[in-house]
Amino acid sequence: MMSKKNLNGRNQLQMVTLDSLVPKNHLVRKIDAAIDFDFIYALVEELYSVFGAPSIDPVVLIKICMIQYLFGIRSMRKTIEEIQTNIAYRWFLGYGMDEEIPHFSTFGKNYARRFEGTKVFEQIFNKILMLAVQEGFVDSKTVFIDGTHVKADANKNKRIKVVVKGQTRSYKAELEAEINVEREKHGQKPLKKKTNRP
User: Fold this and answer.
1) To which H or E segment does residue 21 belong?
2) Phi first, then psi: what are they for 38, rounded to 5°?
3) Closest alpha carbon to 163 in 132, 119, 135
């Protein structure tokens, strides 16, 4: 017998927690259990003023970037759209369903005001990628970068560090390009390109 779904459930008030809605084996749960992001506070502390309105948590900013990178979302604007409706992403960031997710331009503004001209962004992502390697999220024997097969045979720890730094620089370049597109749309100058690499 054919049945027809009643849509009244859309407006039904229910008492549930975000935690109960995120699958136990979801990648964000595994990352949250394996990586302690508190190290970020010490790295960025000097970039924040002790005066003024409270900022968006710097760990949230980095986790937003991680969501974009890990789930292959093409832009920061699209990443924020996905976070708004994805319960697992909200859980990972610590945002309830009634909390407003930061505007997509927030990361670009914070990057331009705080991270530009420093190595902090790279330090954070290098550390996260190294922790991911240690926890087994990244295969330390074989890594593919831009379609190039790279084996880590002789001294796998040295090769991992090179790959991690390469991935960090690549992602940083993509973010800067996206930020510059948004800045130009709003009549702002693009971020300055660094001529010297660390």
Assistant:
1) helix 18-21
2) -60, -20
3) 132
Rounded Cα–Cα distance for residues 197 and 157 (Å): 22
Per-residue pLDDT for 154 more than 70? Answer: no
Residue from 104, 15, 125, 20 nearest 56 by CA: 104
102's tokens: 């930061």
β-partners of residue 149 are: 144
Contact 67, 83 (CB under 8 A): yes
CB count, 10 Å around CB of 65? 20
Q: How does DSSP classify residue 144? A: E
Extract the tokens encoding 175: 């973010």
Instruction: Give the whole-angstrom CA distance, residue 2 versus residue 23.
Output: 30
- Bridge-partner residues for 142, per DSSP? 151
Extract the tokens encoding 113.
């005001």
CB atoms within 10 A of CB 113: 9
Structure pTM?
Answer: 0.70
Residue with tokens 């690499």: 197
Using one digit for the tens of pLDDT, what is the confidence trace for 82-107? 999 999 999 999 999 999 998 888 87
Q: Return the exposure string of 154-179: e unless at least 16 CB atoms fall within 10 Å of the residue's CB, then b.
A: eeeeebbbebbbebbeebbeebbebb
β-partners of residue 145 are 148
